[in-house]
Amino acid sequence: MNYFSSDFKLGILGGGQLGKMLLTETRKFDIQTLVLEPSEEAPARYSCNGFYKGSLMDFDTVYQFGKMVNLLTIEIENVNLDALDKLEEEGLPIYPSPKTLRLIQNKGKQKDYYVSNDIPTSPHQRFVDLNDLRNALAKDELEFPFVWKCAQFGYDGNGVKICRSALDLVKLPDVECIAEEMVPFKNELAVIVARSVSGEVKTYPVVEMEFHPEANQVEYVICPARIDEKVAQKATEVALKVSEAFHHVGLLAVEMFQTENDEILVNEVAPRPHNSGHYSIEASYTSQFENHLRAILNLPLGNTDSKVAGIMVNLVGEEGFSGQVVYENIEKIMAINGVTPHIYGKRETRPFRKMGHVTIVNEDMTEARRIAEEVKNSIRVISSPLTPKGGI
Ligand code: ADP
């Protein structure tokens, strides 16, 4: 198949920042793309060859979109899977496969899959709704503390709550959910595995994640993780095992916990480019986005090694500001060597909304970490004075 400067069309479900960054690579290779996305204002709207506004959960919309392309991929997991099943039956290559997406879309099914494939993960119980969970508590089949997670459609921490007592249950939505044993972890790690259609596999170095204590969003992603070589090896092996178990094609980001006694437990996976791999655009020989493309098009995978130490800082909307976004001090951070901001192209900021990220690269990790903190303390994602607090 000739993908380059040809009539071949790659379809992407979702037009957010991940789609936008993937499109940088399709532009580089001159591969045509069509994007389906519900929001007209989406970050990916300009860099694709065709932008289609429509619901990713609607059977007909997704099916008709699939009929226009030669290969389909996703940048978000929440898409209509019945439409993907039908398209796949009719011969359209879809990566990741609808079967994998079905397992991953539901955290209960995802966790069960780890258990049945002998992949280390924290013990869990599944519940059809909140009442089911309350009954388990009443019968002492479940005990505090535990981590509640909604089974479907939770993202960026909004579907997760640490429950220490009955008080914590009050505000939980009444949806299908799981309760996980709380893991006392030293570190949150992630490994991105690239696996091509023909089974070529490469892994990116282990990264270490630091979370914002309130927003529950990643604050720094540090590559390579500052951990023992043995632990890094174990994490890589576990990630490879997960990718094998899913027969995954494309990128699989495997999020893991390093426990206090250096066990590795899989938390969850994302079957696509991931926030934990954004550093790779500047720090690696081949970015995660380029390798996702290479993997799904069955091209040789690129070198996943890093050229330099890389740290990524998420740019999230500051609390108390809503409206037309302003990146305060962006010139100041751009004056520092090795600092590159990525602005996703969302016009409006809201508290904790992911608006962009900044990558810091340096030969020396300690220096990179110092600069990352300087960046974090300098740049602010706020709104213009015309739209103060409570604005549009
Ligand atoms: P999301 O899909 O919203 O990213 P995660 O499952 O990754 O949700 O959980 C968000 C965060 O909550 C994790 O990064 C971790 O900090 C914490 N967390 C999740 N599961 C557990 C657990 N079993 N034990 C302790 N902390 C957890």
Automatic annotation (TrEMBL):
Residues spanning the membrane: none
Residues binding ATP: K107, K149, E180, E181, M182, V183, E188, N267, E268
Pfam families, per the entry: ATP-grasp, PurK_C, RS_preATP-grasp-like
CC per GO annotation: cytosol
Annotated EC: 6.3.4.18
Sample GO molecular function, one term: metal ion binding
PROSITE patterns: ATP_GRASP
BP GO annotations: 'de novo' IMP biosynthetic process
Ranges for domain ATP-grasp: 111-297
Keywords: ATP-binding, Decarboxylase, Ligase, Lyase, Nucleotide-binding, Purine biosynthesis
Pathway annotation from the record: Purine metabolism; IMP biosynthesis via de novo pathway; 5-amino-1-(5-phospho-D-ribosyl)imidazole-4-carboxylate from 5-amino-1-(5-phospho-D-ribosyl)imidazole (N5-CAIR route): step 1/2
Catalytic reaction(s) noted: 5-amino-1-(5-phospho-beta-D-ribosyl)imidazole + hydrogencarbonate + ATP = 5-carboxyamino-1-(5-phospho-D-ribosyl)imidazole + ADP + phosphate + 2 H(+)
Annotated family: Belongs to the PurK/PurT family.
Function summary: Catalyzes the ATP-dependent conversion of 5-aminoimidazole ribonucleotide (AIR) and HCO(3)(-) to N5-carboxyaminoimidazole ribonucleotide (N5-CAIR). Catalyzes the ATP-dependent conversion of 5-aminoimidazole ribonucleotide (AIR) and HCO(3)- to N5-carboxyaminoimidazole ribonucleotide (N5-CAIR).
Subunit (UniProt): Homodimer.
Protein known as: N5-carboxyaminoimidazole ribonucleotide synthase
Lineage: Bacteria, Pseudomonadati, Bacteroidota, Flavobacteriia, Flavobacteriales
Protein encoded by which gene: purK
